[in-house]
Amino acid sequence: MTFRQICKNKNTDKWMYADAYEQEFFRIRNKPITILEIGVDRGGSLEVWKEFLPRAAVYGIDINPTCAKSKNIFIGDQRDRPFLYDVFHRIGGADIVIDDGSHITSHQQQSLDILFPLLNLGGIYVIEDLYTSYPSPFHSCYVDGISTVDYLKNTLDKLNEGGRSPDTCPIPTTVLSIRFYRGICFFLKKTSRQISQIKLIEPPPTQPPSGLLRRDNALSEDKENSRNKE
Ligand SMILES: C[S@@+](CC[C@H](N)C(=O)[O-])C[C@H]1O[C@@H](n2cnc3c(N)ncnc32)[C@H](O)[C@@H]1O
Question: Is residue 66 domain-shared with residue 146, that is, in the same domain?
Fold first, then answer.
């Protein structure tokens, strides 16, 4: 069944993102992964995940205690770092995190900052309902400060400048790609193989001492050649 068909008769509005989820999750549909969704409400989306990803272990987080209808649902705040660490510890890590919680822009950013570094390598972090990054009379999720879309644009800038500031921003060095659809964004985390390539693609220093660059490069080429021969 398609994602859209699975969403029918379920208490969720996930069908809004059917095309995006079909596109991004197609390759992992039959993998034994762990998925954690922030925002459980009536549990409709957790049912969707169980059906769409039949081999996945499905967990949820919600701030509302009435959502605690199974042992796979944890009650707490999506901004609460110790709580989130504890959840990750209990479920043994996660391959996919979906933020469908408060939709308040500062909360979206805090959860991303806390959880992206914890996500398994090769994992996917999803933020839904990005329309809350724009002021609207219909919701009160947009708060003062930087919007989530602007925050993501800044992350894109860091990604494109070559990850030159890994100490101040840990996200770009492990982000493989950031993919936007209408109202939803997918962060793909590098696999361990891709992480091990980072050293090889680092840009050279902008102003090397004269003569040194050629020698260094030759050395690294030699090293690379001998590695390839091994
Ligand atoms: C849009 S509903 C989730 C819908 C659900 N994912 C679905 O598609 O069926 C948002 C949920 O986020 C929860 N929530 C709101 N603020 C939260 C916070 N700070 N931390 C965790 N959950 C929160 C609400 O209690 C509500 O149940």
Answer: yes
